[in-house]
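yo

u said u wanted the structure for the complex thing, so here. seqs first:
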Amino acid sequence: MNIDSIQNGVVIDHISAGKGMELVRLLGLDTSDLSVAIIKNVHSEKLGKKDIIKVDADVPFNLDIIGFVDPEATVNVIRNGVLVEKKKLTRPKILKGVIHCKNPRCITQVEQELGHEFRLTDDGYRCVYCEAKAG
Amino acid sequence: MRSIIDVMDLSVEELDELIASAEDIIEDPDKYAEVCRRKKLGTLFFEPSTRTRMSFEAAMYELGGHVISMSEAGSSSAAKGESVADTIKTVSNYVDIIAMRHPKEGAALVAARNASVPVINAGDGGHCHPTQTLADLLTIHREKGSFENLTIGLCGDLKFGRTVHSLCTAMSRYAGTKFVLISPEELKLPSYVKKGVLRKKDIPYTQTTDLEGSLKDLDILYMTRIQRERFFSEEEYLRLKDSYILTEEKMKLAPEKMIVMHPLPRVNEISVSVDEDPRACYFKQVLNGKYMRMALIIKLLKEAGRL
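structre next:
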């Protein structure tokens, strides 16, 4: 994979330095067969340092996950070597099936079939069931 | 389908409406004796409860309705591993409204999402207990005449005490409310309540470990039990359980018009001798709880088109 020139794929840019690996994990790229380049601590005029993820395949990504990890990141879609779409992100109001509630008293700990769901509040994401803070 | 998981599911206007309805029930109970005729309340209590369960059952009987109960979680389908969702979907076929208590936080939301009848959260672990807060609000309204300009002392377990968190949230909607937070260091009000409720709404509050020194400023003293079941360590519980004990002697330091409230059950945090003090309102709270549950059952059944 030539990481400088993707022909058809996705570049997730302007990721705050240090969050790239978390994003790779939550997007499932660490276990996928796709060609993925993770570039850490790249110099950035805007951020000082940033991470970049390049995926050499035109596959859809769950933008909620990227918005949750870093709403300042940008998602660039490349086709035939040309930037065709630049997606701006926001923090999703509801986050489903991405992270798990760690509160041992939460109903999701005993009912495994329940989907994990978080709501964006004034002080971050909270489990919709028990209201414990994510993290 | 409208269910009540948290007291904040009710607007201030709806709370006023429920209080007015409860006052009317108190005034003329006979008028309500047949309101829920042929309607059934299902009480699903997945953990032990005496007063809340009996209060719901008494409320439904006094409205002329019937009650179907799950005897106890140990002998129910829950013991066989059935999910809350499946239990609720099943019970929804038998009853018009459900009151549910469950030890896990968030279980009430699971129930509400899967029910085809209204669900009232009768306590989901340390999370919410909205009908206790309704009982508290009716008591404050009846004893103080208004919700405005009250200084409320919250004493005891402010960390795990769900009634305290709900009361903080509910009272923060009224003008002039002030809180005095009295607790051991280890059981202070969680920062998300202070930040998300008190500071967000500019509610003045002070934090202290000193009960005696705080009494003179209070309109309401809300005592709570240090709850053994909320601790992972028995040692920690034993160290903290006797942090505050309200006695006749301490009551001499309190204003003549201050009222003492407690969600009950108490262990030893209020001496039995205080019960004779006219400022002790905790048994009135129990009765008020029944009236508010009656008002809530009527409201939810009407909204569901079942009355």
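Residues 126 and 162 of chain B are 5 Å apart (CA to CA). DSSP finds eleven helices and nine strands in chain B.
cya
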